[in-house]
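Let us practice reading a record.
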Amino acid sequence: MKARDSQIVKGIAILMMLFHHLFALKKFSLFNITHLIINQKVTTDISSFFKVCVFLFVFVSAYGISIQLSKSNCSLKNLEPTTRKRVLNIIKKTFALIVFIFIAGSIFNLPYTASTDYNNGSLIQKIVYVFFNAIGMCSVFKAPLLNSSWWYLSLAILLIVLVPLLYKLLDKIGVCSLLILTVFSYYIFSLNTTHDRFPKYLLITLLGIITAKYNFFDLLKNYIYREREGNFLLRLLLLIGLFLYFPLAVYLRTLIEPCYYFILDTLSAFNIVLLCFLLISHIPVINTILSYLGKYSLYMWLFHTYIMTIWFSKFTYSFENLWLIYFMLILTSFVFSFIFTNLVNFIEGKISKINSYIYKHLHS
């Protein structure tokens, strides 16, 4: 699976996230929304299912890091600079957005957060809370989030640290032993899989690592496309099976306990990845659009809640038509992300040139 395929998966994931947040059940009691998908229940069920977007982001992160590890073959000690660079990159980008939010909020008298926890406490305490938001450590230090969707920052940083460790563990003990160890860990330590914590996303993380290490997608592609005519039926049956899985997953969800939902969500996410790899990535125009959405998904994720809830909720839902509301949030989130990403990259480039200039003259 190439980088563009990963971007397409992220593009689908961000579209699912926006729908999931826009059309949660509580939104229907606050706003008049028309042109639903069949009815309100079906719409909210789809919205609820789209929480699987988190599993997609986790898979792409684990897969991408593992691909780089498979190329470098470094020791854990040598991986430290790369890991630190990845963590600092996320922190820098989050900090840049927080600075923008506070500047824009101050100029236009807009709230910095929807959280009431920031209404009380000293200025120093609020600054500390904001700092924990910037470094993605709110869940560790129990600090209130500036933005409710930023809970994933802690998980994203944890993945950067843990994936190399799990990759090296896979090297040592192999796939079967690692999976058996994982299954036993769930039972021995009674890991909570209903809350948004790492145990819930451990299986999809391992899938990302394993598929990257053993070149699963290359092997699948070589097998399916080895005979153009002979394997057409196989490809068709595989795609039909992948599509049929989703109604089956919805039905199975009614039969099992919530603590096992993560297994279905893991399988659903992997099915979506396979559909992207085998079908969606080959559809002209759609693959390009999804790739662009994936490329700019970071700030679409970090900022969309300010558009739809904190700053412009009345504008967002003023269209009433479900599809117009959805399209406008996609459009506004993407335009902001495109502009802000390029602005941040431009500023970083200028700072880098200034630092190089200073360093050169200090050592000349």
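A brief commentary: The mean pLDDT is 88.
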